[in-house]
Amino acid sequence: MTAVAPASAVGTPSRRMADNPWLAFAVRRTGRLLVSLWVLVTASFLILHLIPGDPVRAALGPTAPAALVAARRASLGLDRPLWEQYVDYLRGVLTGDLGSSLGSSLPVSRIIGQRLPATLELALLAFVVVVALAVPIGAGMGVLTRGGRRRGGELAFSSASTVVGAVPDFVLGVGFVYVFSVTLGWLPVAGRTGPSSYVLPVLALAVGPAAALARIVRVEMLTALRSDHVRTARAKRLPAWQVNLGHALPHALTASITLGGLLLSALVAGTVLVENVFSWPGLGSTIVSSILEKDYPVVQGVVLVYGAGVLLVNLAVDVVLSLLDPRSVIRES
Amino acid sequence: MTTMAPGVLVPVADRPAARGRWGSVLRTPVGIGAGVLLAAVLVLAVVAPVVWGAQAEAVDTDAILQGSSAAHLVGTDNLGRDLFARTMVATGLSVRLALTATVLTVVLGMLLGAAPLLLGRRAGRLVTAGIDIAVAFPGLLLALFFAIVFGVGATGAVLAIGVAGAPVFARLTSTLAAGVASRDYVLAARVAGVGRFRVLLRHVFPNIAEPLVVNATIGAGGALLAFAGLSFLGLGVQAPDYDWGRLLQDGLSGIYRHPEAALAPGLAIVVAGLAFNLFGEAVAKGIGLTSAAGVVRGRRAAGADRQPATERGPVAGQPVLDVEDLSVAFPGAGGPVRPVRGVTFSVGRGEAVGVVGESGSGKSLTALAVARLVEAPGEVTAARLDFRGTDLRTGGERAHRRLLGTGFAMVFQDPMTSLNPTRRIGHQLAEGARRHQGLSRAAGLARAVDRLRSVRVPEPERRARQYPHEFSGGMRQRAMIGMGLMGEPALIVADEPTTALDVTVQRSVLDLLAAIRRSDDVALLLISHDVAVVREVCDRVLVMYAGRIVEDLPADRLAAGRHPYTRALVATVPDMAVDLDAPLPVIPGRPVDPSAQPPGCAYAARCPLASDRCRAEDPPLAADASGSRVACWHADEVADGALAAAGAAREEVA
């Protein structure tokens, strides 16, 4: 009658890993991250080669002289064998050299360095607002509507959160601009000037995911409140706040994190649209203008940054999950 | 599996039922609303270009960039074209492009999702791994990526959004298909040599069509929003064509002068997106609800409220627990349902009382009600509910927290789910003591280690730092008992404490409970469906049937029970003398549905001695000279009838 031992592995190294689930988890998770990063880098490399026709000709226009096109192709390395270009690209990504913009000739890494902070601020602030709104509202509604109590409140909450959650962030942004900037004149219409200029873009980004996350937290809270171990906590005669906050909420949050992580990475993508509504000087407006100008090195670089951001968010979610729920590290991925 | 013919094995019976469910969705208010909204959007998409087409293209240089007026409801654009007409006409292109992209998503997604079934294991795993990586990226980011590759414009955007949605749909398809593919009729079809493709088309897809259609509907809403987003960014529909995203972008630049130009297409996007979303969710909810609904269709029994007279059981000195006329009610479709009806009993100091009965007899709920753990909407009423002389009915939960927290221990059925999986065992034990006994963190933990040792958990110091999943089943249950011993309990209520455990460790848990009772003079209320367990551990047994105590007798006299149900229950327990060739006896018939209690004795329908009086009048629980109680009109006739009952039971099975 000992603890549930993991099925003993055959080889010595894997035996050691099986003995330490945390190590096995770290190895497995790092492996997945590396494979995903490799797929991402390869996909971003392939952008230039997947575009039908000649991207340089398309960028320069049909009237550009052939010599200029050839020179540009050579500067992009497009005249060399594919594998050589690929190796060069990988080396460039590893050393931080992402090429230069076709339009401004600035290094892509410098453009990203200038633009990324504004986007990160937006995404992180929005994330904080999402959690600050969704967790108390969702958990509170869960406690209030458990066991079929307050049917009216439940109906109002679920309809309101469905409708709010279904409004896309950029439309919400336009609505906010109309109400708070045009009509009331409280906040600036666009740009990144002072603290007040952050309010509307952050809210436009955060409100939809907050509504969606609040729904998830409420449902998970209801499930947690029904669970056997919460009944045990009640049988210990702990006060209601300790049962709800100490036993039900951690469980509900753990269960919400996976879906919450999806929302968070969708938030990263959502910045692209919201930045364009508010003329926010971040990566979102950069990638759109570079796509329209066919400035492919910049496009490739920004795609890499967004993709890496999503992968990091997913990694963070898995790590947080493993800390909150120790069982998740021994679960097969 | 009677035949191997593939055509016969398809569960065609599912189809009409499915259609009925879709119909029933449309009868709910949300379903109707969403359905009407969706129909309106779809009709508008077809009709609007015909009705408003000419007006939307009419250039009027005298009315450039006007605000809303009687002539132009939402104003005009920079060529003086009517924006209301343009918003309406844009429905056509917006919806058409979104639906095209959705079709692409569904086709690609189903192909990719079915790959593991079609291509065999190795290639299938490769596809699945690819899908897993792609799913990690948000749809909008994938759409942007493919928009770069496929080029700026409506066609590129359709391809981009269509392809970007495919991974999620593929994941859904493969998950659903994997569930169906392992079912017997699909396996049978494969054994019969039906080709993989044919299996997919005839057996797998038809059975997962419903969730796929629902998700495609919700997906169409997502595609519509994504399209609006791409067009808004200037990457989708290009001038002179226009959709809502394009109109929104044009309107945003002039939001100070005429905000209507931006608000109208924005509203259109929201309404159309909601129409798809709400309809899909209403259908999904409708389907989900129906499958889970064996809804209590209760009619309230005529005499459910009439409590027949009940006499108190034997009381030795001041009882630890004294319960009189305890009832639990839950709201049901046809009035309240009462799974526990007028239960009266008491548990003396150090006494072990067992409660037996079939599942659904109300024994576990009785335990929860006594422990004040029944939550709303359940409602507990009692004429008396005293624990150590304190009336638990008055005062809120707060008033009795300390009394119950230190003196009243609960042990639940499944120790795996009853312990908090995310907290260390020691902490879980100490938690209650820290609150009720004011122990410090260290003192609480020391007490927890001491208690773990007392319930014979080896290496308690190390074990206290472990999580429940690191414990074996029997050890978890002993930790659970240890949790109850953190205070100085006067009563342990154990609800099926060994049912979820291996037979080999059941014994050790029962021995532990018995030892605690002897050494600490703790009373035990043991709920079990296992007559043998109760007979062995307990002094006295309460036999419950349909929410009532039908007999209360000493455990050693169980074999001589006076109630026909007690007799039948005891007869189902095999002993060493049982004839191994004869079928095991069972109690014929089914337990009573708590929502439809008969007016008379609830057991009458299954009782070999039942008379008209039994069916009309519920017998009271009457005490005899020795203090035993029985609720039966024929209690005195049972002596020779019991054998007949057991005999009848045997015949029933044979």
Automatic annotation (TrEMBL), chain A:
Q: Does the keyword Translocase apply?
A: no
Q: Which residues form a coiled coil?
A: none
What keyword terms does UniProt attach to this protein? Cell membrane, Membrane, Transmembrane, Transmembrane helix, Transport
Subcellular location, record wording = Cell membrane
Record membrane topology: Multi-pass membrane protein
Looking at the record, the residues that make up the ABC transmembrane type-1 domain are 116-321
Listed GO cellular component terms? plasma membrane
Gene Ontology terms, MF aspect: dipeptide transmembrane transporter activity
Record's superkingdom? Bacteria
Residues passing through the membrane, by range? 33-51, 122-144, 156-178, 198-217, 252-274, 303-324
- PANTHER family, sorted: DIPEPTIDE TRANSPORT SYSTEM PERMEASE PROTEIN DPPB-RELATED
Record-stated family? Belongs to the binding-protein-dependent transport system permease family.
**What name appears for this protein in its UniProt entry?**
Peptide/nickel transport system permease protein
Origin species, per record, is Klenkia soli
Q: What is the lineage of its organism?
A: Bacteria, Bacillati, Actinomycetota, Actinomycetes, Geodermatophilales
From TrEMBL, chain B:
UniProt-listed Gene3D superfamilies: MetI-like, P-loop containing nucleotide triphosphate hydrolases
Transmembrane spans? 30-52, 97-119, 213-237, 261-279
In the record, what terms sit under GO molecular function? ATP binding; ATP hydrolysis activity
Cite a single GO BP annotation.
Answer: transmembrane transport
**Which GO cellular component terms are attached?**
plasma membrane
Where is it located? Cell membrane; Membrane
Q: How does it sit in the membrane?
A: Multi-pass membrane protein; Peripheral membrane protein
Q: Name one Pfam family in it.
A: BPD_transp_1
Main localization category: membrane
Residue span(s) of domain ABC transporter: 321-571
Q: Which stretches make up the ABC transmembrane type-1 domain?
A: 91-280
InterPro entries, from UniProt?
AAA+_ATPase, ABC_Ni/Peptide_Import, ABC_transporter-like_ATP-bd, ABC_transporter-like_CS, MetI-like, MetI-like_sf, Oligopep_ABC_C, P-loop_NTPase
The protein's UniProt keywords, in alphabetical order, are: ATP-binding, Cell membrane, Membrane, Nucleotide-binding, Transmembrane, Transmembrane helix, Transport
Answer whether the UniProt record assigns the keyword Protein biosynthesis to this protein.
Answer: no
In the record, the note on similarity to other proteins reads: Belongs to the binding-protein-dependent transport system permease family. Belongs to the ABC transporter superfamily.
Protein name in UniProt: Oligopeptide/dipeptide ABC transporter, ATP-binding protein, C-terminal domain-containing protein
